[in-house]
Amino acid sequence: MNIVLVHGAWGDGSNWRHVIPSLHAKGYQVSAVQNPLTSLADDIDRTSKLAARRTAGRATARNLRRPIT
Length: 69
Prior knowledge:
Number of domains: 1
Largest sheet: 2 strands, parallel
Helix content: 25-40%
Order of helices and strands: EHEH
Shape: flat
Radius of gyration: 13 Å
Strand content: 5-15%
Low-confidence stretches: 61-69
Number of helices: 2
Number of strands: 2
Mean pLDDT: 79
């Protein structure tokens, strides 16, 4: 199973440094996105490209583009 981890605002891919080894130890293939944080569109593009490369089109994702309440 492939897992793509995406950081939140004001973070970067290194935020997952303590999570990735445990997931690897359980047999998962793990990637952490390093988003540019230049715009939401750029972040979505980077995440989509990484997910496509890692999952060969077998991705299931939740749409996070929703208003913040």
